[in-house]
Write a structure and sequence with these properties.
It is a single chain. The chain is an alpha/beta fold. The protein is built from nine helices and six strands; from the N terminus they run ααβααβαβααββαβα. Strands 1-2 form a two-stranded parallel sheet. β4 and β5 form a beta hairpin. The two termini are about 15 Å apart. The mean pLDDT is about 90.
C-alpha cells in the first residue's frame, strides 16, 4: 500500500500498527523493520532507502533487515508508506526490491489509492504549507502541476497525471489494485485487508 498521500494513509497505518499482533495471528505480517517508531507505524524508511532520501537511517531498518524479517513469516505480508509513490522514478532500485521479494516466493501487489486531482492538489498544498513550510503560493503550485503533470519539491515528487504514472509503474509491478478515494475508501481498504486473511 503506497498512497497517494492525502488519502487517509496515516489513519490506515495507525490502524495497521495498533492491530499488528491481531493481523499476525491471522497470518498477515505488518513488519516492524522500516518503521519510524510511534506514532508513525509505516515503512517510510524502506521507501526512503529506495529513492535515496536523505532522511533514510539504517538504524530504523534497511531493506536487508526487512527481507530477513519477512523471510521468517509463512503467510501474507503488508507494507505501507505513501513515499513508495515516488519509487517508480527510481526504477532500478524498485525493480531490484520487487525481484528480491519474488525470490522469497511472494506475489507482489501494489495497492494505490487515487484521489481526484483537484481535491488532491488542495489537500497536498495545505499539507506542504503547514508541515513542510512550502515557500510557494497556490498559483505557482498549480502552474507547476499544469505544466509538468506532477509536483516536485526537494525530494518529494507526486504524480497528477495518473495514466502517465501507471504507464511508468506497469512494467515494474506485476499487479496493481486501484482504490478510488472517497466515501467508499475505508470499506474498500477493509475489503483489501480481509482479502489477505
Amino acid at each position: 500500500h503506497w498512497g497517494l498521500p492525502r488519502t487517509g494513509t496515516t489513519a490506515f497505518q495507525r490502524f495497521l500498527g495498533e492491530n499488528s499482533t491481531f493481523l499476525a495471528d491471522q497470518g498477515v505480517l505488518y513488519p516492524r523493520m522500516g518503521w519510524l517508531g510511534s506514532p508513525h507505524p509505516a515503512h517510510h524508511n524502506i521507501a526512503w532507502q529506495l529513492i535515496g532520501d536523505p532522511r533514510f537511517s539504517p538504524a530504523r531498518g534497511t531493506i536487508a533487515d526487512l527481507l530477513a524479517e519477512v523471510q521468517q513469516h509463512d503467510g501474507n505480508v503488508l507494507l505501507s508508506s505513501e513515499d513508495f509513490v515516488m519509487t517508480p522514478h527510481h526504477q532500478g532500485a524498485l525493480a531490484g526490491f520487487i525481484s528480491q521479494l519474488r525470490e522469497l516466493a511472494f506475489q507482489v501487489v501494489v495497492v494505490l489509492v487515487l484521489r481526484h486531482q483537484r481535491e488532491f492538489a488542495y489537500s497536498l498544498y495545505a499539507e506542504m504549507v503547514g508541515h513542510q513550510r512550502l515557500p510557494m503560493d497556490f498559483s505557482d503550485f498549480l502552474a507547476q502541476i499544469c505544466s509538468t503533470s506532477e509536483f516536485r519539491y526537494h525530494f518529494w515528487l507526486y504524480p497528477f497525471d495518473y495514466q502517465v504514472y501507471l504507464r511508468l509503474l506497469e512494467p515494474i509491478v506485476p499487479e496493481i489494485r486501484i482504490i478510488p478515494y472517497g466515501s467508499a475508501a475505508p470499506r474498500l481498504r477493509a475489503d483489501f485487508i480481509a482479502s489477505l486473511l
